[in-house]
Amino acid sequence: MDTLEKAYVKHPGVSPMIQSDRGFQYTSHEYKRLQLKYGFTKSMSRVSRCLDNQPIERFWGTYKSESYYLTKADTYEALYCAVRRYMRYYNNYRYTECLDGLSPNEYRRAA
């Protein structure tokens, strides 16, 4: 929930749609409180329907095969750094066919 709070502090006035699975954090009272506070639209996948959330499911599969299973992180700090490093790579340098051969950030800037 801290990440959500930080995002709204950094980008006040936005009202995104947040797609999630049915994890406990997305059905919690705290999440509902944040939704009321910031007014974002929540979209939740149906029970046992991973295809409802296909883009993020695909991302996590890609992350696991390209980074997580290849990274030996013995501490929380090492894992945190590895995830941040991969996110920087993914958003800025990882080109994908579905984004016309651009990285996610390049695609967003071109829109």
From TrEMBL:
Residues 1-111 form the Integrase catalytic domain. InterPro entries: Integrase_cat-core, RNaseH-like_sf, RNaseH_sf, Transposase_IS3/IS150/IS904. Gene3D superfamilies: Ribonuclease H-like superfamily/Ribonuclease H. GO terms for molecular function: nucleic acid binding. One of its GO terms (biological process) is DNA integration. This is Integrase core domain-containing protein. It comes from Paenibacillus polysaccharolyticus.
